[in-house]
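Shipment paperwork, digital attachment
Item: protein structure file
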Amino acid sequence: MTELDLAGQVVELVRRLAGPDAQAEAVVTRSDLALTRFANSFIHQNVAESTVGVRLRLHVDGRTAAGSGSLVTADGLRALVERTLAAARLCPPDPGWPGLTPPSPVAAGVAVDEATAYAEPDERAARVRAFVDAVGGLEAAGYCRTSHRSGAFANSAGQSAQGRAAEAAMDGIARTGGSDAVARRCADRLADLDGAVLGARAAAKARAAAEPVELPPGRYEVVFEPAAVADLLQNLSWFGFNGKRYAERQSFAEPGQAQFDRSVTLVDDPLHGSGLPYDLEGTTRRELTLVDAGVTRAVAHDRRSGAGIGASSTGHAAPGGATFGPIPHNIRLLAPSVAGGAPDGAAVAGGGAPPATGLAGAVADADTAALVAGVRRGLLVSDLWYTRVLDPKSLVVTGLTRNGVWLVEDGMVTRAVRDLRFTESYPRALGPGAVLGLGRRAVRQPDRVDGVWWEAPPLRLAAWNFTGGASG
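Attachment content:
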């Protein structure tokens, strides 16, 4: 039985048990996730899971409830419907119920790479071996994963949709006695992941990060590599471009206002990568421009958050949306070559041979090298982590650097620096006049969650507020 048949069967069961006036939507998803982990330069775990999940949401007598299960037998589906109906009777009235998605076209989605969808363990292991060999005797750890999802949606209003998606990702670190460095990438095809390239990059940066020095706190010009930029995009997504937070006036977003530098264009683009072509409510997913040349244009909505302010769903309904809100999970910071050229006042990196950068290995690519070459005194930052929001309205975030920080003087990387704590407003740091350069090549960074990714080139910012050492 197909996923669409199962979803339709659940909706029909609701009609039979709750009557024709009951409103119901069902999502069925099959997920195959395989993960090859390595530590101490050896594979220590290869795991794979294949699951089927059914999620039902229904609205009966003015009350709304949701339930989920993994049993797709006739008895299992009936039990899911019965317990969700029982839960609905105990729920308070739901005057904000936005209704079901009406019948409407759903995008076809991207073509799935079958070799990735059905990759064997030895194919992932080969990339791990290439990573370990490339680090040249340093300690290596990380993972290589592949995933394949197929699913379908149906509701009692007549809407239906189905789709497939596949993804591959690799994330690894190389470690010397006192320094670490990371290299990671996410792609639609496993064939696009080169363990040797990632391992060599991590090893070169780890060696360049040895013997770091202390640096006093203060505001420094920074060059962020794509891994660090991914944290900016993730927090902007959760706390800024979230329609629920926007409706509650807990978001910085002001559509129509020039809140960012003119070089910043942010697009949520689920069909550019490994997303299914519909959301949890059966709304088609499509490209959504969040920021266009510095001007905030939109926030993400599901049906409930959109109805609250008189807007339509943007296709961002997801599990937990009633609590967390609709969140864009596939944001791209468009590189200048994609966004149509650099706006006035924004430098563009890339092209030609990398400029001299001083400390060998600290700079991973020509884009980053070109950005570093323009810095009189500042920092090159590989990664951010343990970031926590202090004020959601202004999106002031505190966190730490990791996996390599270097001092840049007169366009040259001169020495490794110990990790630093920062406290910074992300929108302010990306505000008008604050972005001094973007690389031309964006790199997709994997998230811990399958199907979630952030894509960005390296980024040069005029100032970033470092408040002390990592232990402070």
